[in-house]
Amino acid sequence: MRVLLLILLSTFVWSDDHTEMYQDVYAQYQYCSVKDGLSDAQAERMFEKHITAYRELAESLDDEVSTVMLFPFYTNEEMRGGADMMFITHAPNMKAMGEYLVATWNAIDQDKMFPESPMECENASTAFQRVGPASTDEPSDFFTVDYWPCNYKEGADPELMRKLQAQVAMEHYANGADAAYRYIYPGYGSDRGEGPDFWFSQSSPGLIARGESIDIFWDKTYGSEAERARWDHFSCDKPSTWVGWRAHN
């Protein structure tokens, strides 16, 4: 089972139109592992040089794309899908995604001095996302994200589900939580056959904020009318937790 995830802290204006509460985002996920034969120290040195050069390259581009790095925190082998970490690239549309990928691939290929990556990234996939309102529009360089694999229940109303979730989120933020959330719908390269209908993710700007958000949920947010009603439309399995850093924008 591939874990699909994305952190892109959203910037929204609250509206009574629940359709406008969500921003459409496209994502590409690269699943990477350290190359065989490298020690931890070697891989760390190589990664630092590679990601520093990558950041400099990416920041030289004029784009609306962002990239993050995610590493497992609370996971197991199934949740990780065999990968050591992930690079996730986010774009407002697939054309912008393609332009960014071509620009970075060509630049790296043409620069014979570009630092080698210690990672092998053999598999990739895409997803379409609906990004909900966040507690703040300030981006965080370091963050955590929890991912739940979810399925619709019979007779579910996805639009109503998202409306209810937006209400729950605003209640949660009003209670003091610092967080953001989104719905992630698997696309190209995702598992075929049995699998989640979508992933629900919730991010926080660090481990302390994540822990506080969890405490606030159980102490104040849990059990509200909207919180109970949203579960009429979907069910979720156990989550995984990842920590991440911004690599571009």
What does this structure look like?
The protein is built from six helices and nine strands. It has 249 residues and is α+β, with helices and mostly antiparallel strands. It starts with 22 loop residues before the first strand and ends with a strand. The radius of gyration is 18 Å and the shape is globular. The chain has one domain: Alpha-Beta Plaits, CATH 3.30.70. An eight-stranded antiparallel β-barrel has the order 1-3-2-9-5-7-6-4.
Indicate the topology.
Layout: E1 23-34, H1 40-59, E2 66-74, H2 77-80, E3 85-91, H3 94-110, E4 119-131, E5 142-152, H4 158-174, E6 180-186, E7 198-204, H5 207-221, H6 225-230, E8 234-236, E9 240-248
Antiparallel strand pairs: 1-3, 1-4, 2-3, 2-9, 4-6, 5-7, 5-8, 5-9, 6-7
Keywords:
249 residues; alpha+beta; Alpha-Beta Plaits; eight-stranded antiparallel beta barrel; 6 helices; globular; disordered N terminus
